[in-house]
Specification:
With about 500 residues, this protein is α/β, with parallel strands linked by helices. The protein has 2 domains: about 230 residues, Rossmann fold (3-Layer(aba) Sandwich), CATH 3.40.50; about 240 residues, P-loop containing nucleotide triphosphate hydrolases (Rossmann fold, 3-Layer(aba) Sandwich). Helices cover about 50% and strands about 15% of the residues. The chain has 22 helices and 10 strands. The protein has a 5-stranded parallel beta sheet with strand order 2-3-1-4-5, sandwiched between helices. Strands 7-8-6-9-10 form a 5-stranded parallel beta sheet, sandwiched between helices. α2 runs parallel beside α11, α12 packs across α21 and α13 runs parallel beside α22.
Length: about 500
Amino acid sequence: MSAANHRVLHEALTGRRLTKLEYGHELPKLQDRLLDAQFELRKQRTRAVAVIVTGIPGAGRSEVVNELLNWLDPKFVTVYGFRPPNEVERQRPPLWRYWRVMPPKGRIAILHAGWYEEFLADSVRATERDSVVVKREVERIRRLERMLVADGVAVVKIHLHVSPELQARRLRRLARDKATRWRVTAEDRWMARHYARVERVFEHCLEQTDQRPAPWRVVDGTDRQHRAYEVGKVLLAGIDGRLAGEERPVRVKRPAAARQRALRKLLPTNHPGPRVAEEEYDRELEVLQGRLALLSRKRRFAKASVVVALEGMDASGKGGAIRRITAALDARQYRVVPISAPTPDELARPYLWRFWFQLPPRGNYTIFDRSWYGRVLVERVRGLAAPADWQRAYEEINEFERELAEHGVIVAKFWMSVSKDEQVARFAERDRNPLKRFKVDPEDWLNRKSWDPYQEAAADMLALTHTSHAPWTVVPADDKRWARLAVLRSLCDRIEARLG
């Protein structure tokens, strides 16, 4: 669909029809090919398919979805409809409810309007929308779809369209019959009365969000048989991977050399950092924990939430810092999420899926012991992610954190910077202590052998993902007491600045 064509919906109404004979002849062949493609999708499990179906009232969205379910093996297809966000959904960023239903590789998800639902509804009803807001919503959708396609989710977008005359006839026919009048809502009637306005909104949306990795396909809904057949062909192309054009490789802009050198100085290898005496530590710890407790009980905090991400080399003190945070909080108010190697279920979905799933409701904390930065740290260093995947992850992570911040989530990120000598001393101490021996495993020693590549990866991470809405705090961590106080102090400052 060309964005330059400003009458794409009108021109899609070709009036093409399939006779009963043609439909009966062609449909079995299409069904057979769809089932074969679905079987191969399930067998290979290298990609998933997300089908977005939009359309004006009376164009036949529900009928099309029902037909697809009849043609496919329904055990491996899930259909989702979205109403206005409920209380649980409103407490998270707008995309949260769509991430929750993202299909795993090998499966198909059909989403009624999907992430276009709210954008279209808001645009249709509003007499005038802030152009900056609209631009941001379009950008959000385009980035999401590019990321999904790059992560193995084929995004198939279908829009069904009919003329205003046919729409009116269909809605009247449904409304006259007691058995079907429930299908015509007040919203449908309103949209039918404002057909021209609705058409302009849909057309603008399609033009702004049509892109090579996730193109729109407009289907004429005039003839039911032709409509079904065309939608089936579009879905087949999506399953086979023939819809999305070839994407250009992501090129990551390297940090400026001067900034890179400055960041490396924050990641010491053998330089002792600041220290604090035990008596002073105990006194300051009590003050900071009391401050955090009071901030978390403020009335304004109930409208915010906090995501804390702690990263650092092994034995850098992440766990100790987390325990000093949680000691100040109500146990009902937080969750600690330790991140390790992804499970098979997590590997079957886009990389960020498991982190979206853990986002807290308002008034709560989620504390990540390691986080989504694993892709640009351990996965990069150990070769667990392809270069193209970890290179595009910087932009995807920045967008993820921007989504959180725009919803009022306070994002606090800490890099616990421990020296090489201090790390090996802590390994030895843990080996000697029976109660801490479990904290050291062969993976830790293996990671230590890659110290320099980890430091380089960390410097790139800090340079490329330090933003105004989600800044990094680099904490010298050779002295555990000093590091714990620094984390608490920075976290309190972040929350205080957000609450005012």
